Amino acid sequence: MSLIEPFRGLRPAPGLAGDVAAPPYDVLSSAEARARATGKPLNFLHISKAEIDLPVDTDPHSAAVYAKSAENFRRLIADGILIRDPAPCYYAYRLTMGEHVQTGIVAATSVADYDSNRIRKHEFTRPDKEDDRVRQIEALSAQTGPVLLACPDSVAVDDLTARATSRDPVADVTADGVRHMVWVIDDAATIAGLTSVFDAMPYLYIADGHHRSAAASRVAARRRGLAASADYFLAVIFPAHQMRILDYNRVVRDLNGLSADAFLARVSERFAFTAAAGRVHPEKPGVVGMYLGGRWYRLEIDRSLVPADDPMRRLDVSLLSDQLLEPILGIGDLRRDKRIDFVGGTRGPAELERRVDSGEMAVAFAMHATQMSDLMAVADSGQVMPPKSTWFEPKLADGLVSHIID
Questions:
Q1: Which InterPro entries would you find in this protein's record (predicted)?
Q2: How much is the mean pLDDT over the chain?
Q3: How large is the average pLDDT for residues 268-279?
């Protein structure tokens, strides 16, 4: 089996991509999705968040939701809104957000290579989230939410992608400040070239989509010998150097019974800190911005506490947990402790200030963004990152290319 294969993508009919494209299923609440899709009958949220077409109190994980998703999906196909390419193709997918541009390849990617860890992971998955994606794939007999993968930098991939994007795209949609462009790659030489170049790569890395890829593996195991296409999952693969990770910040509800002065004294045992004149944007690893009592502080970790030979424990998010959140604030389980919340970097320091100034939270921490090299090193070591270590921007859209399992 090849690491990647071309496939007969299901995509919006000409001129309809803007009506169909939707944010990823997991970035909107049900209420936000309902508001977003009002008056937009072709929007893919009617498939990825089908509870919006059922009574407001419907459980998003009820059988009725998956059935409604399948019904809506079949309707868009029957009405010619979504069409399937007649022959297997790859697709180029470009994301543009401000000055940032990244261009990747949409491909059917090997489940066997995921299972063998050639496609490397850096997060734990939750069984309930896996179950949700399995039920969605089974209901549709399709994968509609692409996994975001990173590949080692390759001049050959760059050249083949440049060739594929030299003509007009089949989809060009701008939403939420992000431009999404898709090209069909249907010439035999480019298809063969891409397959060969990716086959020569030692590893790919999951950036975002651990639950989707795990669910695809489970579906493949169920359908083994019945549907060859189930042995592959939908992914968009970008060169690692093009990908952008933003900071993923932390806010904590209380100081674990400490006064502000006592808390600062405890922090000073592990961090050098100074009061800052304004907002702190950590400019390098080992620096954390802290907002407490209406003031910003610049924290710098004692370098003797950084384990240079452990790619996971030397991450800023790990150091903050190991040296401050757990020993001082008593937060040992980032997944389950209700006293901590996480704020993506797109919201900026103003959101951290708002949540502390409102009294909802007691203290906020602005992080330096995890780097792609850090992610790859952790994955190569077989370890996993702490929860909420990476926030990738821009994000892929749902509905522009789907993978039918038949």
A1: UCP033563
A2: 95
A3: 94
144-163: burial string, b at 16+ Cβ within 10 Å, e else: bbbbbbbbeebeebeebbee
Q: Which domain holds residue 262?
A: 248-368
CATH of the domain at 291: 3.30.1760
Q: What is the pTM of this model?
A: 0.92
Rounded Cα distance, 249 and 356, in Å: 13
Tell me how far apart the alpha carbons of residues 312 and 319 are, in angstroms, rounded to a whole number.
9
Flag whether pLDDT at 83 surpasses 90: yes
Q: Is the torsion defined by CA of 149, 151, 153, 158 positive or negative?
A: negative
Instruction: Indicate whether 83 and 139 sit together in one domain.
Output: yes
Domain-embedded: residue 382: no
Cα–Cα distance between 48 and 66 in angstroms, integer?
9
DSSP state of 325: I
When divided into structural domains, the chain yields a total of 2
Q: Are residues 187 and 330 in the same domain?
A: no
Position with higher pLDDT, 346 vs 196: 196
Residues in the chain: 406
How many CA atoms, within 13 angstroms, populate the side-chain half-sphere of residue 108?
Answer: 23
Taking only the tens place, the pLDDT of each residue in 375-390 is 999 999 999 999 889 9
Residue 378 lies in a domain: no
Each residue of 127-160: pLDDT tens digit?
999 999 999 999 999 999 999 999 999 999 999 9
Q: Does residue 388 lie in a domain region? A: no
Same domain, 230 and 279: no
Q: Is residue 274 part of a domain?
A: yes
Residues in Cβ contact with 28 at an 8 Å cutoff, skipping those fewer than 6 apart = 36, 45, 49
Cα separation values, 292 from 285, 298, 352, 353, 362, Å: 21, 11, 10, 9, 7
